[in-house]
Amino acid sequence: MSERHSRQLPESVGAALRGVSSAGAALWTSVEPRIRQWGAKARTRLRHYLDEGYALDGEAARPAAASITFEGATAIFGDAPALRDISGTFAAGSMSAVVGPNGAGKSTLLKLAAGLLQPRAGMIRREPADPRAIAFLPQRSEIDTAFPITALDFVALGAWRRYGSLATPNDDTRDSARQALAVVGLSDAAMRPIGELSIGNLQRLLFARLLLLDTRCLLLDEPFAAIDQATADDLLAVLRRWHGEGRTIVAVLHDLDQAREAFPECLVLARRVMAWGPTRCVLTEQTLRDARQAMQGN
Amino acid sequence: MYQTLIAPFDNFSFMRMALVGVLALALINGPIGLMLLMRRMTLVGNVLSHAVVPGAALGFVMVGPSMAVMGLTGFLSGVVVAILAGVATQLTPLRQDVNFVAFYLLSLTAGSLLVLAFGSNVDLMRVFFGTVLAIDLGVLAMIAAIATVVLVGLAVFYRPLLVDGFDPRFLGSVAGRTDVYAGMFMAMVVATLVANFLALGTLLAVGPLLLPAAAARCWATRLGAAMALSVLLGALGGYGGLLMSLHANMPSGPSIVLADGIIFVIALAASGRWSVMSRFKARGISP
Fold first, then answer.
1. What percentage of chain B's residues is helix, strand, coil (to nearest 5)?
2. From B38, B176, B226, residue closest to A51, measured CB to CB
3. Superkingdom of this entry's organism (chain B) (predicted)?
4. Contact yes or no for B167 and A52 at CB 8 A
5. To probe the interface with A, which of B36, B163, B170 has the most A CB atoms within 10 Å?
6. A141 contacts in B (CB within 8 Å)?
7. Residue A195, SS3?
8. Which is deepest, A33, B24, B152, B228, by most CB within 10 Å?
9. Interface with A, mutate which of B162, B173, B180 (most A CBs under 10 A)
10. Residue A7's pLDDT is what?
């Protein structure tokens, strides 16, 4: 069709058209690199602004180990002190359980450690200093599960820092998201919307996202509450795996047997430190009784 | 067929202009409406459409019935009301919805009184219900410009805008800056509402924004599909509404929203557990 059409045109018109198009092409090739350069520069600037240059260098920005040290930290909740004079260290590569009666300030301690809450007195030193080097899993997530996103895409969000706010996850990210889903035993649910998952499976999903987040320090607030035993066992295996990789893990627990079994370090809390050290020394009937009494005394 | 469905747009240039206008609107109404739905902010969207009134009225008082000025001042007053309601929510124990409704009542009454003080009932009707069939090239260019800016913004900030809507705490833990997205989204919503206002007036502006999105949400489970579908349904509603208004001799703005509403009701009836379609399916499976 176009051939017949061009044959009807006079030769001069064809030549003129060819000339114009080749001139246009030449102009485009001369301008294109500059446009691309501008685009790339604008993109980098915007990304630096949105992501504050965090972890843009990938591996280089990530330290080998992470520790959190409390130095006389005090937190106020309402008018009453929620935590008083907390001192101690979650050492790099340690795996600690935080236990204590209800209202002992366990969640508050974790929020202080994560930098979500500032201490009223004392200080908290983090190594590395950026609180975003720490992953925090809240007790109750504020995730809107009605949002139409598949489990796979949800887990892929964990790699956000690697590609930033402006890019989309690539096939590599999707592959690692699939692997993470396999680790937590959710491979079958990859393409299901998150709203269809049970509470236990949602917790598995959050763990899979933490796998992709790949931080050196993980703070988990009652990660095994309200989920079934099989899920708890699977997720505990994930925790052990992270521990084996030298990550620092702090988890608030209610199940003391679980703490004895799986967590080498333990902190018993009753608005102040009752005991902090190796679990078998710390988690005794005596300290637990003391903790309960301390809470009643308050 | 041709006579009913296509000829009106061939014969009348005002129908062509209106059609182009509603199609451009459908392009942004789809994604923005769905994101409003996802963020459970449909009520806020409704309120912001009224927040445009005092600004538009002020523009009307200062310059007269110029759509360009009314659009600009309307946008500014929408943004101001959104900020005020946000600040009031932060500083007082009142919940967000209370503040938004209070500001909506204030803007609606203040705007109406302003228009009535300096103009006529007809002017007020124009602010409220718009004049789709009076869209000229200037208004069309404004709608197109707003649509372009909103679409580009959506394309660039698509992912953080979405994640900020359903898991803001996670976004805060991985991205450096999360304080920008709520405001950015509000600005996009106000801009979209202003674009709708230019064609349909402030009272009807929310209709094409929310109804096709809600209808699409009934059918599509995936977000991308839902966005595409809501754009399609919005275009269909605009086209159908314009035809309806011509053939049934009805006012054009309300007929467009009516067409959107009919599409929404059909979508409701054809989805969900109690839908007509699923009953047919169930009968097919049972022996």
1. 85, 0, 15
2. B176
3. Bacteria
4. no
5. B170
6. 167, 169
7. helix
8. B24
9. B173
10. 54
Rounded-to-integer distance, Cα A165 and Cα B175, Å: 7
Q: Which pLDDT value is given to residue A8?
A: 64
Strand, helix or coil for residue A144: coil
Range of the domain at B19: 2-285
| Beta-carbon pairs below 8 A across chains A and B | 65
Chain A residue with minimum CA distance to B153 = A166
Q: Which DSSP state fits A150?
A: B
Residue of A nearest to B217 (CA): A148
**Could you read off the pLDDT of B8-20 as tens digits, one per residue?**
888 888 999 999 9
Where residue B64 sits, what CATH number does that domain have? 1.10.3470.10
* Domains of chain A by start residue, with CATH: 2-51 (no CATH), 63-297 (3.40.50.300)
Chain A, 200-219: which have a CB under 8 Å from a chain B CB?
209, 213
- How many structural domains comprise chain B? 1
B39-65 residue pLDDT tens: 888 888 988 999 998 999 899 888 887
Q: Which residues does chain A have with pLDDT short of 50? A: 1-4, 6, 56-61
CB A164 within 8 A of CB B174: no
Q: Give the pLDDT of residue A298.
A: 55
Rounded CA-CA distance B240/B258 in Å is: 9
Q: Is the ipTM of this complex over 0.85?
A: no
CB contacts of B163 in chain A (<8 Å) are 157, 160
Of A50, A144, A213, the CB nearest to B177: A50
The pLDDT of B214-231, averaged and rounded, is 90
